[in-house]
Amino acid sequence: MSSKRHRVVFIAVLTTLLIFYLQSQTGQRTSSWLSRAEKDVDWSRFAYTQYVTNSEYLCNSLMFFEALKRYGSRPDRVMMVPESMLEPEMVNSSDAYLLNKARDE
């Protein structure tokens, strides 16, 4: 190998090592900053909100909220539904079942 090739290989290896080193240092600072910031958050001030207008959105919102719960999401969950979905004649409907499920879980 010529001297020029040696220099190119040396610079490439040095650059690669420098990039890996800087990435590892940045990652450590970011993760410690995130963990410290996460402790300072008042999660009661935040909520995921869904506005349900029909049966399909109700089912989708219920699945979305279930996934948030499964992943350990800290903010509250709020589901807004139109008054028509809360009518007394809707008591035995599938929408009423899903609304009760959302309320209880």
Automatic annotation (TrEMBL):
UniProt superkingdom: Eukaryota
Signal peptide: 1-24
Keywords attached to this entry: Signal
Record carries keyword Signal: yes
Name of the protein in question: Glucose N-acetyltransferase 1
